[in-house]
Specification:
This protein is an alpha+beta fold. Helices cover 57% and strands 11% of the residues. The chain has 2 domains: 12-24 and 237-334, Alpha-Beta Plaits (2-Layer Sandwich); 33-232, Cation efflux protein transmembrane domain (Alpha-lytic protease prodomain-like). It is elongated. 45% of the residues are buried.
């Protein structure tokens, strides 16, 4: 993007400068109406799921269907996931206080990781039960399984639609949505198994359908654990390449070097960045900082930034013996310019 002209530095411009920008993802500000809207959609989905889960447990026990029982167990985790998401939404909306300078924003990520882990644990238990059913299949009422599964498809379609109305950029909401979506696919496979058992009497179809559900649970669970883990480990957002970002900052005409560059996520959909930037002595630190913040905002959607900008003469480059940062973290991005004024 075109750079704004760099103003010559005055006496104040030579001093150490810091800049900050901050923006919250929609739906997660304290008192934001969107956050309340998310909670309403989640609450409606929770009521729907709990009501049908109770029906499915009774029917599954009467029909001796592990596929239905597994669906009911998954619906229990759905209900727990939504309830956990609701609690996390409330915690995340609280303003920063005391030692929690970011507030409780990562409560959402804890919720998402808990949802992912429960999916994996449930997959393990159902996998063992399904293998046992395949070895010694019990008699299953295929007609009852089919009817109940078809009703479950309708219920989960409705619940999926409700949660889809919430802000799915939140990993917390996405975790609840993945629970419901996986359960929807599970009901579809259970309905197919019920039809097979009804038409052919092949009782092992119940166990096979359960294994399909297990595969879906593992896929969704691993995704949630992986994405929440990246945030807890403060990895850069998946769509941001720190090396490319550092090179772009270092490519600014006034920049001599960029080091101690960190890019992470405070919570899902809320990236942040910090860096130590050295600029030419004839440039205004404030002006350069504003231009670099604009690059981060417009090019990478990073609005929470902390840039320390110093003149290169007062802060030697990181490779020198008198470097300002004794142990800079990560690579150093140095400018390569052939037309720099002497």
């Amino acid at each position: 993007m075109p750079q704004q002209p760099v103003q010559p530095g005055g006496g104040a411009g030579r001093r150490h400068q810091r800049g900050q920008g901050r923006a919250r993802r929609p739906g997660h500000g304290h008192g934001n109406p969107a956050a309340g809207s998310d909670r309403r959609w989640l609450a409606m989905a929770l009521v729907l799921i709990v009501a049908y889960m109770a029906i499915e447990v009774i029917v599954g026990a009467l029909a001796h269907s592990l596929a239905l029982i597994s669906d009911a167990a998954h619906m229990l985790t759905d209900a727990a996931a939504i309830a956990l998401a609701l609690v996390a939404e409330r915690l995340a909306a609280r303003p920063p206080a005391g030692g929690y300078t970011f507030g409780l924003r990562r409560a959402e990520i804890l919720s998402a990781q808990a949802n992912g882990i429960t999916l994996l644990l449930l997959a393990g238990w159902l996998g063992v039960q399904a293998v046992h059913r395949l070895r010694t299949p019990p008699e299953v009422a295929g007609g009852t399984v089919l009817v109940t599964a078809l009703a479950g498809i309708v219920v989960n379609l409705a619940a999926s639609w409700l949660i889809h109305q919430a802000d799915r950029r939140s990993l917390n909401v996405e975790g609840a949505f993945q629970h419901i979506l996986t359960d929807l696919f599970a009901f579809i496979t259970t309905a197919i198994a019920g039809a097979v058992m009804l038409l052919t009497g092949f009782d092992r179809a119940d166990g096979i359908a359960t294994l399909v559900v297990v595969a879906l649970l593992v896929r969704a669970g691993l995704r949630l654990v992986r994405e929440s883990g990246r945030i807890f480990l403060e990895a850069a957002p998946a769509d941001v390449d720190p090396a490319e970002l550092g090179a772009r900052l270092a490519g600014h005409p006034a920049v001599v070097e960029v080091h101690d560059l960190h890019v992470w996520q405070i919570t899902s959909g809320e990236p942040a960045a910090s860096a130590h930037v050295l600029v030419r002595d004839d440039c205004d630190c404030h002006a350069v900082r504003e231009e670099l913040e604009r690059v981060l905002r417009d090019g990478y959607a990073i609005t929470h930034t902390t840039l320390q900008v110093d003149h290169s003469s007062s802060t030697p480059p990181s490779g020198s013996d008198a470097a300002h940062c004794e142990a800079p973290h990560g690579p150093t991005h140095s400018a390569i310019k052939t037309d720099r004024p002497g």
